[in-house]
Write a structure and sequence with these properties.
mainly alpha, single chain, protein dimerization activity, HAT C-terminal dimerisation domain-containing protein, HATC_C_dom, RNaseH-like_sf
């Protein structure tokens, strides 16, 4: 059993920062990919992990958003 819950709390904090009321429709795959990118950074991910993340975002449909 871990002696500290700080690492788990950091992950929940990161998830709450990513999944806001404006971004509440993120799929589990997208949220996981974003958390990996934020936590690990692009340089620390393996080529296989990076490829999987890129494929997740390629599958997303294009949206017409007027800003």
């Amino acid at each position: 059993m871990p002696s500290s819950t700080a690492s788990v709390e950091r992950l929940f904090s990161l998830m709450n920062n990513l999944c806001t009321t404006n971004r509440n429709r993120l799929s589990q795959d997208t949220l996981t990919a974003l958390m990996m990118l934020c936590r690990e950074g692009c340089q620390q991910l393996s080529d296989d992990q990076t490829s999987k993340i890129v494929e997740i975002f390629k599958k997303k449909k294009e949206r017409d958003i007027a800003l």
